[in-house]
Design goal:
46 helices; Alpha-Beta Plaits; alpha/beta; Rossmann fold; globular; 7 domains
């Protein structure tokens, strides 16, 4: 059902005391709640409303008009009372309801906006059995009230978290209760408090509010900790306003930020609670005497600079006043017995992996806060698809810190959000100009962090400064290696200092895979980095950082070739940002290029397996652009650049890189490096159809590998020779070579190599019609590739599974596999593989009769393949386009495509694609009414497939059988048999020549 739009009236309901009822009478509550849900839904839907959300026992409904919403609320209350009375229920539910009218945003079957906040707050001040209306809804219903209904004005009330008071009305009817206690608003004298009125709306935090309320029900001292500006104060005030009714003697805010003298803490608490000092008694004694029989909640806000005094007072009150609870906010916990600590997280942020649109962004708290505050200073501001990426990036770069986001939003009145985001590299100058009435440290971002920094010891300050060299987090061992080991911080002190900074909410602690990791919010990191530069130690610690991560990368380089691949891939992924920072430093430091080349070379396998092809190629380009000696490191980087260019389909660049790398390695006598280069130039030659050269390179590498005792080079050479044999249609030889390679890779524990060999064995099995063996090999390969996180390998396995199930006629599964593969290949920018997926999807569309889609997909594939080069792949695309033209009746175009396809096959000796080309030509000749030639071509294709051991897949065989049946009906038996026999007797050249003959339409 479509949700109402435009001006909407919202009806919110919930059951008063439902938690207690579930605890005390769960069986009766289950039955009563079922009746409640059915009655509410019926009343809402009967009156034209839509239930768009339920949360526990609460209903949220939307109506096109206010009178409809009022009728639904009245009908629901009447039905609940009548049903309860008629059934003699032992459990009567007290349901409160609220109505408010306004506009709201729709997304994913839900509503968002200020109107939702207001109706929720209106509901919160009501009582069970009561129906409340806002002033807007009252104005829209007062002239059309149902019989016997009247609306009683209850005056203006301050709603929790809303700056503008609300005129509240109560719906009266003879069937409904008349007498209710005063509304539970901030103006209710029966709910004593000194909570300040908030002038801006509270955004999000629903999960945190629920968690804090739950914790407060179980503890008497709850401390909210978190970094400066994360919203601890505002969150505590929001929770306190929601639970006023739980504390008959009030909820009292005590603001400690203005104090500097610890002796004034107790006096300030007494003053907030209206407790006067007594003669001959200390202020703590006076407080105890006043509070020991009262039930109240005290909010101690901003305790971090008066931590000891705050802890002493809290401990004293907890022991002396059993009805008193405390909720404190501080950068670090008070550290006393009985305290529960709750860390306040930053606001939720968009998922970087998803496409960023204005509709999707508004569900995230950080973005909603930015929008709300931006509109307050610039009412015309709106998030559009054009500025949405800048808004998302701004919130990311500010770590979802509420104060930082509010300061950034204030700049919207002077510049577009895109410019604000661009200037965040200098955020401490940009993010100024907060409210003049705010605490001084909350008026600028730098002042906020200065406040925390100034509370640190000298050792903690030094540690924080040094930690700024890390990007994306670090381990304890890395911190000990880089930041400790001198006269200021000894190595054994690093853990204690880190723990202290975690306690003070400046460092964030997490666990990943059982390992402790730490990180700084980016805003804190930039602040600490500025302090590090000011100290004159910036170069020193960036150099130590680079040395640490070069050592890690070089250790990983060897480990990535053996059984520990998965562990080391994850470790490098966790440290990727640090490795990037180390590379950046190499590029900017005089004399750092050789170290940068070593680091880049060490990362090639990691970047390759994890699909960071574009980044790796860009990093290598930057390193190679700087002058350097022809060292092993430079040769390795050139080789890596060639690998990435090859995978991205830039074969000319790949060839150039490989040749330059080979030349350096030959000059240096680096035989192991030469073997590696030979495998790569062999693979490139094979992909380009230069089979003689490709085979020669693999054979040279095989001989060299055996001479060196390099099993890895031998396994790679065997696999390359297997590829050559498969391309030539010698499946028996290909299987043997792949199996030899697989056995050697299993000895090495090389999961990446094992996965590659299994994939090739799967291809051979599929080509020979052994689909069970093919599936087993593909799935084993896919499992290993997923374990490694190898996007290229995952995509290849998925695509091959698609080929296999298509051969078996399962179109839906084939499309799913192809599309999954294409997504990964587009992410990596792997042009050759993108073309493969497009061509396969085009062939699938052709089989299903979707000619327009087939043409679009195949033409895009062919364009990429012509740009990339590689005759075999171009032939594959031409084959499909020839079949498409044939199906559409464009026989000249079909013939032209197949002529080019078979010409390429003859040039490169590709027997399997040639067989497919002959079959396509046979079908074309049938359509063009040349049955004898069609039979000769089918016979030639059958003989060729029998020779290379590559039978047609079942789905293709069925098409061929239909054609042969049609040809048998067109010719007498002798002519049919003679033509087929003549075709089977043709050699490869004769068969291609027959197919290339031009004929009249």
């Amino acid at each position: 059902m479509a949700l109402p739009g435009g001006t909407i009236t919202f009806l919110f309901t919930d059951i008063e005391g439902s938690t207690r009822l579930w605890d005390e009478q769960p069986d009766l509550m289950e039955l009563a709640l079922a009746r409640h849900d059915a009655l509410l839904r019926a009343a809402i839907e009967t009156n034209g409303g839509t239930v768009f959300k339920t949360i526990g026992d609460a209903f949220c409904a939307a109506f096109p008009t206010a009178p409809q919403a009022l009728e639904a609320a009245l009908a629901a209350q009447q039905s609940l009372r009548e049903t309860s009375a008629a059934s003699g229920s032992q459990l009567a539910l007290a349901v409160r309801m609220a109505l408010h009218t306004g506009t709201a945003q729709q997304r994913d079957g839900d509503y968002f906006g200020a109107a939702l906040n207001r109706v929720a707050r209106l509901l919160a001040i009501g009582h069970g059995g009561q129906i409340l209306l806002s002033g807007v809804t009252q104005g829209l219903t007062c002239d059309t009230l149902p019989l016997s209904v009247s609306l009683k004005a209850l005056g203006e009330h301050r709603l929790r978290d809303l700056g503008r008071p609300e005129s509240v009305f109560h719906l009266c009817h003879p069937d409904l209760p008349a007498g209710f206690p005063p509304l539970k608003s901030l103006d209710n004298s029966q709910l004593p408090n000194n909570l300040p009125q908030q002038l801006t709306s509270f955004i999000g935090r629903e999960e945190q509010i629920s968690q804090i309320k739950e914790l407060l029900s179980k503890t008497r001292l709850l401390t909210l900790t978190g970094s400066g500006g994360c919203g601890k104060t505002r969150l505590s005030l929001q929770v306190a306003a929601d639970i006023l009714e739980d504390y008959p003697d009030g909820v009292w805010l005590v603001e400690l930020a203005p104090l500097s003298d610890p002796a004034l803490v107790s006096q300030t608490v007494a003053q907030a609670l209206g407790v006067k000092e007594q003669a001959n008694a200390t202020i703590q004694q006076t407080l105890t005497e006043s509070l020991k029989s009262r039930r109240l909640l005290i909010l101690l806000d901003n305790c971090e600079h008066l931590l000891t005094a705050s802890a002493q007072l809290a401990d004293y009150l907890l022991h002396s006043c059993p009805g008193v609870k405390l909720m404190t906010s501080s950068r670090e916990a008070l550290g006393i017995t009985g305290e529960t600590n709750y860390h306040v997280p930053s606001l939720t942020l968009p998922d970087r992996t998803q496409a960023i649109t204005s509709e999707r962004l508004s569900q995230y708290e950080a973005v909603r806060l930015f929008i709300d505050r931006a509109v307050a200073v610039a009412p015309a501001f709106a998030v559009t698809n054009q500025n949405a990426p800048a808004v998302a990036q701004l919130c990311f770069r500010l770590d979802g810190i509420p104060l930082a986001i509010e300061l950034a939003a204030a700049r919207v009145r002077a510049m577009p959000v895109e410019r604000i985001e661009e200037r965040l590299h200098d955020r401490f100058r940009l993010l100024t100009g907060g409210s003049r009435t705010a605490l001084p440290r909350q008026q600028t971002l730098r002042a906020l962090i200065d406040w925390s920094y100034d509370l640190l010891t000298d050792q903690e300050k030094a540690m924080l400064r040094r930690l700024s060299v890390f990007t994306g987090g670090w381990t304890l061992s890395a911190a000990e290696s880089i930041c400790a080991g001198d006269e200021i911080i000894e190595e054994w002190e690093a853990l204690d200092l880190l723990t202290g900074l975690v306690d003070k909410s400046l460092v964030i602690y997490t666990e990943q895979g059982g390992e402790a990791r730490y990180r700084l919010l980016e805003t804190v990191r930039q602040y600490a980095r500025d302090r590090l530069v000011e100290s004159g130690e910036g170069e020193t610690y960036r150099r130590k950082h680079r040395e640490c991560f070069l050592a890690l990368a070089e250790e990983a380089r060897e480990k990535l070739r053996g059984p520990e691949q998965v562990f080391w891939l994850e470790r490098l992924e966790n440290e990727h940002d640090n490795l990037r920072a180390a590379l950046d430093f190499c590029l900017n430091e005089t004399g750092g290029i050789e170290i940068g080349l070593k680091l880049g070379a060490a990362l090639q396998q990691f970047w390759n397996i994890r699909g960071h092809l574009s980044e790796g190629r860009e990093r290598y380009a930057a390193l190679l652009a700087r002058p350097s000696e022809p060292t092993r490191a430079r040769a390795s980087v050139l080789n890596g650049a060639g690998v990435f260019a090859y995978f991205q389909g830039d074969c000319p660049a790949a060839r150039s890189f490989f040749e330059e790398s080979m030349a350096i390695r030959r000059e240096l006598g680096d035989n192991q490096g030469i073997a590696e280069s030979l495998i790569n130039v062999g693979a490139l030659a094979l992909s380009q159809g230069d089979y003689d050269a490709g085979r020669s390179f693999f054979e040279q590498c095989l001989a060299m590998g055996r001479e060196l005792g390099d099993k890895r080079a031998v396994a790679g050479s065997l696999n390359g020779l297997g590829n050559f044999a498969w391309t030539q249609g010698d499946y028996s030889a290909a299987r043997s070579l792949y199996e030899q390679s697989l056995a050697m890779r299993r000895e090495l524990g090389d999961k990446q190599g094992i996965a590659g060999s299994l994939n090739h064995l799967g291809i051979v099995a599929a080509n020979q019609g052994d689909y069970a063996a093919a599936r087993s090999s593909y799935e084993q390969s896919l499992s290993l590739q997923r374990e490694l996180g190898n996007k290229h390998g995952i995509a290849l396995s998925l695509n091959n599974l698609g080929n296999m199930v298509l051969d078996q006629g399962d179109y839906a599964a084939a499309r799913s596999f192809y599309e999954q593969s294409l997504v990964l290949r587009r992410e990596m920018g792997d042009k050759g593989s993108i073309a493969e997926s497009l061509n396969d999807l085009g062939a699938l569309a052709l089989d299903q009769g979707d000619y327009d889609a087939a043409r679009t997909l195949c033409e895009e594939s062919l364009a990429i393949r012509r740009a990339v080069g590689g005759k075999r792949r171009i032939a594959e695309s031409l084959n499909v386009l020839g079949k498409l033209a044939n199906e559409e009746g464009d026989y000249p175009a079909a013939h032209a495509c197949l002529v080019e396809c078979l010409t390429l096959c003859r040039e490169l000796g590709g027997l399997c694609p040639a067989a497919a080309g002959l079959e396509a030509s046979a079908h074309l000749n049938l359509r063009r009414q040349h049955p004898e030639r069609a039979l000769r071509l089918y016979g030639a294709a059958q003989a060729l497939r029998q020779t290379i051991g590559a039978p047609l897949p079942p789905i293709e065989q069925a098409k061929c059988d239909r054609d042969l049946a049609e040809l048998r009906s067109l010719l007498d038996e002798d002519t049919y048999t003679a033509a087929l026999t003549a075709g089977r007797a043709m050699n490869f050249e004769q068969a291609v020549a027959c197919a290339l003959e031009e004929t009249e339409p």
